[in-house]
UniProtKB/TrEMBL annotation:
It comes from the Eukaryota. InterPro entries: DUF3754. This is Aminopeptidase. The keyword Protease applies. The gene is 25495897. It comes from Medicago truncatula (Barrel medic). Keywords: Aminopeptidase, Hydrolase, Protease. GO terms for molecular function: aminopeptidase activity. It holds the Pfam family DUF3754.
């Protein structure tokens, strides 16, 4: 009976979502908890104070050890990037005296390191489906933005993906690649008067096209980005998982507009990509081969406005609706003038002049409205670059390197803690226990990467596996003995010894 009630509740929620526009994104493996907060919270869950001290000591030793594991890999990546830094890389490449083939090999080696670090830091390549869903609507950016493909290289990334195939890559994968991580929500409240008026005009023309059977004339952008992820297609989805993965999009296009809300404030909402990293290279010229690789890092980018992170953007032109206004005004003006000429052989030039002046005035108004929108767009791009760009180049890579270490340490410590508290556990039980701990103690959700965590624990030598596939950790004191004193600890002790009289 309770199961039937749950099914009915879930079906009701699905029916309600039919009236909404929702986006479903796969839950990620990133652990959204600050490392110091995680360590203290886990230690406070341990009963005995002596065990708490041993646990915090183990946390530090594991962090230092994992940092040492990655140090050489990160160092190699940073040295390679020094050759392809858009600011100073060209001079360093010239000093090396390398051949073109040798440089090509180093480029691909750098990309291999970079993509591995992205994966370890839980960044995912934005797929074609995700790009289509993201750009299927509008948020604050209402002008068509495209990339000037002649200014973007299409060889570097194409060569990498030929050697390292990925599924469901976007159409532009050979020119630039977009990594994304984390989902948030952005809300804006405003009057949006001009946007509402444009929406009414767009709806009128859409109705007119349907009436005349001219649906095929709808813009290519609507066709290309019209796909939506359907959260209702998975009949086996549980209500809990469904709620965790669904983000609502509230936009003007789907709102009922009337005289009442046309002049009132309106709330719109758009899911955001919490972090976006864009990788690309500028196209080479005949006189100067381009070897610099751009790595740009952005935060809190609304999905529908994702165009603002695109490289080498073209200045936007008139939208299809602007052209409709121009053509409509011209046709109305010509019809009015022709009717005036037919009404009398000697038509009043003042009437004709008034009609033409009105038509020309409306066209001029449309043009200046576009210029105003263009200025607003340029201001938005400038502000976004200032407010939303976190870093680029070497700064982004350093951030990624530290992020990898933070995530790996958190995965290992949560897994060890669950084994320490629950005893033996299979891989599935450990995965479930870690996700439950994160949800109950920190009110956060993530798709815990248990395989990577177990691999690290086994490599550290503080977890064993029995013949039937269950994992068990050693005691806290024994774990600290196995890892032993790290270089960082010895340095700290030496410094304390110099300070202490």
């Amino acid at each position: 009976m309770a199961h039937s009630s749950l099914d009915e509740s879930f079906k009701k929620s699905l029916e309600e979502d039919k009236k909404k526009e929702v986006i479903r994104i796969e839950r990620e493996s990133v652990i959204p908890i600050l490392k110091p907060k995680l360590f203290i919270a886990l230690a406070n869950l341990i009963k005995h104070s002596s065990d708490r001290a041993e646990f915090l000591k183990l946390c530090k030793r594991i962090e230092y050890t994992i940092r040492a594991w990655y140090l050489l890999q990160f160092e190699d990546m940073m040295q390679l990037y020094a050759l392809f830094d858009p600011v100073s890389g060209a001079h360093k490449l010239e000093q090396q005296g390398l051949t073109c083939k040798e440089i090509d090999v180093l480029e691909q080696n750098f990309l291999t390191y970079l993509f591995e670090v992205m994966k370890k830091s839980n960044f995912k390549i934005a797929t074609d489906d995700e790009i289509n869903v993201a750009l299927s609507g509008q948020y604050l950016l209402n002008l068509p933005i495209t990339v000037n493909e002649s200014k973007v290289d299409n060889v570097l990334l194409k060569k990498y993906f030929e050697a390292h195939p990925f599924n469901n890559l976007p159409d532009f994968y050979d020119k630039y690649i977009i990594f994304r991580r984390g989902i948030g929500i952005d809300q804006t409240t405003d009057y949006f008067i001009m946007e509402k008026v444009d929406m009414l005009i767009a709806r009128f023309w859409s109705y007119l096209l349907r009436t005349l059977g001219l649906e095929k004339l709808i813009s290519k952008r609507s066709k290309r980005h019209g796909k939506r992820l359907d959260p209702k297609k998975d009949d086996e989805t549980t209500p809990e998982a469904y709620q965790d993965d669904v983000y609502e999009r509230i936009r003007l296009e789907n709102m009922p507009l009337s005289s009442g809300n046309l002049l009132s404030k309106t709330l719109i909402q758009e899911p955001t990509f919490d972090r976006i990293i864009v990788v690309y290279r500028r196209a080479s010229s005949d006189s100067k081969p381009e070897r610099g690789i751009f790595v740009k890092h952005f935060r809190n980018i609304p999905m529908a406005d994702m165009e603002i992170v695109l490289p080498e953007k073209k200045s936007p032109g008139l939208t299809p609706m602007d052209w409709v206004k121009f053509l409509g005004s011209a046709i109305v003006g010509l019809v009015a003038v022709f009717s005036s000429l037919q009404a009398a052989v000697t038509a009043d030039l003042r009437v004709i002049g008034a009609v033409l002046s009105t038509v020309v005035g409306y066209c001029v108004k449309t043009y200046f409205t576009f210029q105003q929108n263009l200025a607003a767009y340029q201001n938005m791009i400038t502000q976004s670059m200032y407010d939303k760009q976190l870093d680029s180049g070497k700064g982004t890579l350093l951030h990624l390197c530290d992020d990898v270490i933070q995530q790996e340490v958190k995965e290992v410590m949560i897994s060890f803690f669950i084994l320490m508290e629950q005893g033996k556990a299979t891989r599935q039980e450990l995965d479930h226990g870690c996700e439950e701990l994160i949800r109950e103690e920190f009110n956060e959700t993530c798709n815990f990467d248990v395989d990577d965590a177990v691999h690290k624990l086994e490599k550290l030598g503080i977890v064993t596996k029995d013949p039937i596939g269950r994992y068990q950790c050693v005691g806290l004191k024994r774990a600290n003995e196995i890892i032993g004193a790290t270089t960082e600890e010895l340095v700290i002790r030496a410094n304390q010894g110099n300070i202490t009289p």
